[in-house]
């Protein structure tokens, strides 16, 4: 009888153990799945928030990106600190984490509604009042971003500490390597979010639906956590503020998680890693064009290799030497990346998520340093954790503070120097961190041998910096002025003027500086002349506006018109100040012209905040594939321009892109302006609320005017001859594709030429136009 009972008890016990194992495995799978969903949602939010806020709040691409990422990181860091102080008080961290995911989804839906609502006039009214009080526009941008984004980012910051606490307290894990895998999986989810967010969701569905997709992913994460089985730990439920000894991992050999050395390392890892990420943004954008997906691809590559480094650290057992040598290897890999970037002759563009994924694989040397940043982060983290939720939160918070510092310093200071110098400054920081890490290792009595070996790391790093500096000067292209060129570095972009006077802006050819009036007849010249020819002969052009100063050709040409009394000019790139002063004749002296008022601000914000109306507005060409170009081409923007034109005013815009992109600009403009004239093979568009014409007969009548500019136009007419002049004035009556090609703030389709072409082909619309030709 007893044996039968014992046998039955054994079967029950064995079955319970099997069910426990199955339940535990299911719990881990569900937790990892929730972290993947949460990570993807977080990065989709970040990339969409940056674009959406820039529309209403303004700012340069660099500055707006910096501010949004700063608010993003500051919110995450604040959430981590708050959770560090309270995570041990929760009876069920899983339940709290589930609540957080649903809360993020709810807040994101609210933000989506806020961004899609037409509150621009309210925002502009507030900005006018603030500017009247002397508050800088960038402070307003930062304040607006903070008010909109801080709460969801704060909630995001609590997720990793809570997940860490779930692993230790509720799933009973005692291996700190689990934390590295947790970070890696969450970051792999972020990889999908960064690449798919801009490459798939925004061009196919628009920004609002992309935010709703992110909210859905947070909901999926929350639902996943609802089905996660929990271990019955009565000790924890009885006293949630205590952690049983069996759940506390060994404290490791390093000092406590809030000691000065650990704080320096956490802060330093964040600073150096984000400094290098900012370096990649600039270097790769210059080499592969500043496309929307270039920035998404850089973020993807960074996250992939960082997460691989964190994952690799979970596989390393007591390899302190390898951790120390990672500093040395990180600098080596950065030297290699710098060389490959300078020698890379391949300039294939990135237009889809497949292009981005292939780029990350093919150009892996660019991202190798990110692997070592992740490795160092993971190695340090697993040595200092005891109470996982608390310690992960504190370490992550200091790392986030360092990341914020890295972004600010790289943008404010690093972008003002050359790329090799930018990396050299970061190497100094890495050497300092290597010294701190070595001192911490030296304090371990059981690792004295390893500590003595580690003392050579700073010395090796110093020697490497000297060698790298020499090699950079030998292997990189000639320094500025050595070949007659000039490089101007600034936080808003890099401008290079080569020996042939070509102005190259962030790797894209922009224009050519004038010499002996050879700018006459170029498209920059036409941007001033064409709207003058189309303007009503019964009224005079007295006030004009140029959006985009560029090389000054359009602005200087307009200034030659005798009737013009005032020309305002908006440009966001303050690096141009140095160009205008370095080449006064090549830029037609616009920096000192008495008629010209230069305003260093983005054109959209300038139009919104200034109610001045103009007789003529002309817009310097943006590369339509360039990130942010849709902000000055959307239907909402054209409506704003229409309000700033006088009743018979003329607006001129050049659609500098593919035929499909040019058609998209014409389609959008035709939905706002009732009168449209298309010139130069369909790429230049003249718009007005009153009838306009640029027929040869009317132009001949206007050419009877006297003045320097009219003499210049007549000279160009003679140079072209009758046939060439008729071709110059030819009006193109071209078909439109309908609303499917309309550019809006929510649907920036023009920035995705490949997707736009596929969309038009799907609607059986095809337009083959020759490229416009200027002498």
How helical, in percent, are the residues?
55-70%
End-to-end distance = 107 Å
Give the name of the CATH architecture of the largest domain. 3-Layer(aba) Sandwich
Q: Evaluate the radius of gyration.
A: 30 Å
CATH topology of the largest domain: Rossmann fold
CATH top level assignment of the largest domain = Alpha Beta
Global geometry? elongated
Sketch the major β-sheet.
Answer: 7 strands, mixed
Quick check: average pLDDT?
79
Question: How many helices does DSSP assign?
Answer: 27
Assigned CATH superfamily of the largest domain = Vaccinia Virus protein VP39
Q: Number of domains in the coordinates?
A: 3
Given as residue ranges, the uncertain stretches (5+ residues, pLDDT < 50) are: 4-22, 232-258, 445-459, 469-480
- Strand tally: 11
Which class best fits the helix and strand makeup? alpha/beta
Structural summary, described in words:
The chain has 775 residues and is α/β, with parallel strands linked by helices. The protein folds into 3 domains: 23-231, Growth Hormone, Chain: A (Up-down Bundle); 250-384 and 413-477, no CATH class; 517-762, Rossmann fold (3-Layer(aba) Sandwich), CATH 3.40.50.150. It contains 27 helices and 11 strands. The protein has helices at 2-57, 61-86, 93-116, 120-132, 137-157, 159-170, 177-205, 207-226, 234-238, 260-288, 292-313, 320-343, 353-362, 368-384, 388-412, 419-442, 448-454, 456-475, 523-534, 553-559, 576-582, 603-609, 635-643, 659-670, 696-702, 708-728, 753-762, and strands at 486-490, 493-497, 502-505, 508-512, 543-547, 566-570, 596-599, 614-619, 645-654, 675-679, 684-688. The strands form 2 sheets. A 7-stranded mixed beta sheet has the order 7-6-5-8-9-11-10, with helices on both faces. Strands 1-2-3-4 form a 4-stranded antiparallel beta sheet, covered by helices on one side. The longest helix has 56 residues, at 2-57. Residues 4-22, 232-258, 445-459 and 469-480 have low confidence and may be disordered.
């Amino acid at each position: 009888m007893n044996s039968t009972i014992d046998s039955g008890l054994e079967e029950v016990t064995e079955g319970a153990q099997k069910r426990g194992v199955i339940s535990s495995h299911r719990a881990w799978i569900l937790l990892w799945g929730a972290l993947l969903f949460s990570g993807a949602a977080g990065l989709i939010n970040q990339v969409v928030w940056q674009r959406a806020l820039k529309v209403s709040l303004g700012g340069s691409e660099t500055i707006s990106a910096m501010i949004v990422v700063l608010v993003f990181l500051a919110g995450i860091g604040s959430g981590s600190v708050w959770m560090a102080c309270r995570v041990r008080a929760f009876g069920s961290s899983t339940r709290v984490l589930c609540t957080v995911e649903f809360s993020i989804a709810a807040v994101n839906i609210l933000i989506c509604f806020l961004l899609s609502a037409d509150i621009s006039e309210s925002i502009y009214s507030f900005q006018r009042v603030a500017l009247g009080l002397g508050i800088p526009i960038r402070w307003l941008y930062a304040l607006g971003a903070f008010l909109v984004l801080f709460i969801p980012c704060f909630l995001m910051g609590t997720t990793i500490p809570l997940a860490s606490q779930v692993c230790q307290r509720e799933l009973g894990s005692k291996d700190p390597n689990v934390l590295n895998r947790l970070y890696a999986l969450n970051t792999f989810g972020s990889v999908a979010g960064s690449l798919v967010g801009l490459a798939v969701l925004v061009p196919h569905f628009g920004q609002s639906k992309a935010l709703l997709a992110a909210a859905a992913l947070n909901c999926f994460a929350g639902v996943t956590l609802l089905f996660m089985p929990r271990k019955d730990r009565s000790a924890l439920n009885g006293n949630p503020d205590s952690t049983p000894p069996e759940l506390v991992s060994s404290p490791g050999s390093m000092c406590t998680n809030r000691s000065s050395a650990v704080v320096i390392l956490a802060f330093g890892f964040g600073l150096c890693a984000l400094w290098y990420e900012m370096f990649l943004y600039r270097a790769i954008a210059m080499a592969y064009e500043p496309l929307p997906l270039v920035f998404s691809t850089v973020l993807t590559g960074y996250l992939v290799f960082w997460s691989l480094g964190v994952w690799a650290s979970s596989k390393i057992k007591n390899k302190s030497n390898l951790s120390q040598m990672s500093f040395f290897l990180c600098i080596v890999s950065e030297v290699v990346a710098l060389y490959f970037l300078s020698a890379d002759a391949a300039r294939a563009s990135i237009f889809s998520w497949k292009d981005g994924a292939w780029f990350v694989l093919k150009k892996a040397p660019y991202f190798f340093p990110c692997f070592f940043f992740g490795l160092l982060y993971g190695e340090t983290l697993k040595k200092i954790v005891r109470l996982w939720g608390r310690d992960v939160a504190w370490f992550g918070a200091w790392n986030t503070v360092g990341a914020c510092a890295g972004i600010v310093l790289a943008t404010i200071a690093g972008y003002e120097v050359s790329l090799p110098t930018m990396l050299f400054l970061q190497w100094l920081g890495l050497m300092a961190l290597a010294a701190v890490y070595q001192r911490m290792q030296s304090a371990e009595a059981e690792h004295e041998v390893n500590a003595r070996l580690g003392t050579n790391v700073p010395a090796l790093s110093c020697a490497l910096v000297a060698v790298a500096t020499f090699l950079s000067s030998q292997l990189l292209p000639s320094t500025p002025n050595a070949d007659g060129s000039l490089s101007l570095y600034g936080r808003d972009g890099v401008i290079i003027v080569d020996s042939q006077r070509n102005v190259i802006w962030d790797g894209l050819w922009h224009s050519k500086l004038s010499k002996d009036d050879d700018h006459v007849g170029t498209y920059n010249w036409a941007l001033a002349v064409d709207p003058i020819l189309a303007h009503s002969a019964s009224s005079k052009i007295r006030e004009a506006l140029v959006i985009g100063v560029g090389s000054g050709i359009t602005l200087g040409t307009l200034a030659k018109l005798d009737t013009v009394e005032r020309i305002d000019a908006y440009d966001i790139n303050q690096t141009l100040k140095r160009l205008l002063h370095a080449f006064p004749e090549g830029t037609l002296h616009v920096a000192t012209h008495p008629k010209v008022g230069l305003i260093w601000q983005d054109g959209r914000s300038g139009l919104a905040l200034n109610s001045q109306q103009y007789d003529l507005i002309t817009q310097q060409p943006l590369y339509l594939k360039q990130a942010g170009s849709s902000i000055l081409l959307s239907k909402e923007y054209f409506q704003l321009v229409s309000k700033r034109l006088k009743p018979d005013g003329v607006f001129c815009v050049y659609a500098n892109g593919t035929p499909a992109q040019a058609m998209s600009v014409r389609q959008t403009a035709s939905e706002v302006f009732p009168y449209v004239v298309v010139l130069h093979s369909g790429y230049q568009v003249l718009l007005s609320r009153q009838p306009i014409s640029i027929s040869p007969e009317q132009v001949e009548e206007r050419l009877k005017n006297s003045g320097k500019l009219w003499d210049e136009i007549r000279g160009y007419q003679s140079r072209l001859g009758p046939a060439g002049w008729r071709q110059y004035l030819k009006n193109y009556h071209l078909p439109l594709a309908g609303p499917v090609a309309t550019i809006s703030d929510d649907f920036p389709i023009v920035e995705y030429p490949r997707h736009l072409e596929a969309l038009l082909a799907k609607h059986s619309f095809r337009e083959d136009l020759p490229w416009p030709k200027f002498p």
